[in-house]
Please model this.
Amino acid sequence: MTGGPSGDQEFGPPERGVAGHPVLALRAALDRYDDARSGRALDVAFAAAAAAVAELRGERAHVAPDVDEVRALFEQLPDYERLVEVAVSETERSVQAAGVRVWSWFGLESEPPRWNQGERQRARLLVACACAPLDQQVVGWLGPRLLKLAAGRWAGVLVGELRRADEELWRRVLGERYESVWRRFAPRGRWRTRELADLMARDDEVAGAMERQLSRWLAAGGQVERLPGELEAAFVHSRTPDRLA
Model:
């Protein structure tokens, strides 16, 4: 998420005919979004929600609300809760699709993870707070915080899968890096060098380094083209403290 809820650089104003009535502007923007799934309509809805919420909160308009106040605002302004649910659902679909891409890239046959109930509730609170107050700082913090919600848990699930994987997976996902990583990090026995799969399955420090690396990668956006380098870096960090690697 690089800008507003649709990824644009800024939030748009409501239509001229309803600009003086933020509650009506919010409802109109949400209705347009329901009709056309327009990112522009969602941006306008966020701007209208911010105005409507500010009007209700009065002098507290520039202070972030707590959980109890968000609940009260939902009761006073049902379309505000409707907007939050729309935005969270859109984000949840994107997150779910990202999980499918990652699992497919690794060739895993298990079900990709999704947000759990606690993560979804935290997402609702984050999006609700993004409207109260709404300013360009939201562009800087909302997207990263949404990405971080499940990064640690998903990384743990993924590493659990990787600890059960065979060597063919490591050859495939590391690609041209495989030979170098295998020579540097695969465990050496008296008669032969074993496989990276053995290392992942048996070494908790390596698994821990892999989980931390993948958690950071997921929180940063989870770009699959970076994965071979991230996996190699995890093996490096398992033998070198982060501050020295």
Observations:
- DSSP finds twelve helices and no strands in the chain.
- The longest helix spans residues 78-106.
- Residues 8-14 have pLDDT under 50 and may be disordered.
- The chain has two domains: 16-142, 155-239.
